[in-house]
């Protein structure tokens, strides 16, 4: 039995050409002084090798060939081959296994005669989801509503003051039913509560030149219509369709920014990525950036990173959702990621959400503060024994002296 490494493709091609010229493989065997089986195998190898040739294999529409791998039988004949194709960016005319996905890569196994044996379609749901999130969110936030008019801020502003409005886990789109969760909660309630609380906070805040609207993550309860968490796949109680939640949440954020512009000269928006809305947070930031792109008084920070920082005089302020690094590690992360700013500053604080309750911990070099949510408790958390108060605050920082004041509004006040 020949070893595949001893096989000469050129010799196989000559034997195949001879068999075609003399009209039969048996006649070719006689002329070569060998067996018909040997001629059959040579012709078989040549034909299958020709089928598997990269140059002869046409890629599927929207794909390009990346790799061709031959599969040999024990006798050295080519029993088949695999072709890997990658998407070029054009539309691939195949039906994905899951709606909304895009095809990233295709692996096809061919038999020796060139017929398809098996085909594996590798899809990329994340890229499709991000694209769909951004498209749906931008359409919803801009549909029929042009950018609002320029808003005048307070006639006198304090350039030495900064106001931070930390939003702990708003959970827009969550559904709670009072008999099982203790209180009703839905999309309309989330919108009304958030607008009412922030309106009152802005009225009590000092006229600082700069305000930070810090969405600390989990602004949206679900990241898509599947109504499940991405990491664990846990089912979620949701209110309405996902695109409607995006629309209402987006317009609520627009309202909050305009409300703050009435008091402050400039507003900086942070949208941290939560474990419930890792993708939707990106859509939120992109849509808000597009909406306010002609307004020099509004800056929307890129949400790609999971940790963000803002330096204000002798203050270094960090923002994150809270489902990543542990509390005790956050000062070290701040010092590592912003070493120069760490050295210039004296008052350092990290704001986070995720845990739905108030907590402030003084660690070496930095205070870590966790914030409450305005959202109600859903059925699962109610059953598990979780309880927390619901409020939001505005924290005032002085350029030299750090935090000097804060104002809190709970739901009973509105």
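^ Assign residues to that structure.
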């Amino acid at each position: 039995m020949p070893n595949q490494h001893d096989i000469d493709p050129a010799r196989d091609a000559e034997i195949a050409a001879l068999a075609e010229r003399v009209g039969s493989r048996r006649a070719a065997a006689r002329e070569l002084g060998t067996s018909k089986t040997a001629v059959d195998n040579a012709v078989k190898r040549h034909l299958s090798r020709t089928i598997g040739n990269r140059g002869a294999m046409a890629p599927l529409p929207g794909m390009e060939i990346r790799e061709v791998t031959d599969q040999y039988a024990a006798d050295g004949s080519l029993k088949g081959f695999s072709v890997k194709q990658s998407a070029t960016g054009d539309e691939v005319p195949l039906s994905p296994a899951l709606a909304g996905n895009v095809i990233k890569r295709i692996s096809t196994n061919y038999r020796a005669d060139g017929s398809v044996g098996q085909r594996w379609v590798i899809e990329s749901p994340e890229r499709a989801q991000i694209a769909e999130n951004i498209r749906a969110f931008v359409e919803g936030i801009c549909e029929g509503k042009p950018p609002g008019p320029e808003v005048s801020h307070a006639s006198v502003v304090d350039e030495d003051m900064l106001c931070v409005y930390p939003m702990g886990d708003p959970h827009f789109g969550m559904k709670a039913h009072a008999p099982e969760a203790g209180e009703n909660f839905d999309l309309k309630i989330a919108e009304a509560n958030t607008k009412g609380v922030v309106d009152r906070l802005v009225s009590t805040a000092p006229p600082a030149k700069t305000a930070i609207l810090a969405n600390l993550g989990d602004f949206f309860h679900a990241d898509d219509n599947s109504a499940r968490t991405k990491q664990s796949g846990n089912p979620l109680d949701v209110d309405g369709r996902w695109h409607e939640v995006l629309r209402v949440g987006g317009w609520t954020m627009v309202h909050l920014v305009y409300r703050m512009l009435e008091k402050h000269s400039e507003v900086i928006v942070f949208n941290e990525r939560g474990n419930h809305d890792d993708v939707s947070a990106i859509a939120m930031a992109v849509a808000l950036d597009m909406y306010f792109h002609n307004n020099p008084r509004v800056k929307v920070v890129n949400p790609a990173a999971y940790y963000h920082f803002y330096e204000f005089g002798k203050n270094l302020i960090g923002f994150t959702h809270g489902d990543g690094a542990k509390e005790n590690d956050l000062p070290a992360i701040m010092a590592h990621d912003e070493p120069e700013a760490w050295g210039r500053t004296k008052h350092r604080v990290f704001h986070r959400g995720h845990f739905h309750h108030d907590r402030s911990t003084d660690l070496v070099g930095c205070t870590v503060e966790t914030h409450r949510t305005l959202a109600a408790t859903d059925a699962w958390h109610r059953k598990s024994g979780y309880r927390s108060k619901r409020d939001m605050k505005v924290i005032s920082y002085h350029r030299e002296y750090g935090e000097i004041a804060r104002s809190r509004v709970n739901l009973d006040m509105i």
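The longest helix spans residues 242-261.
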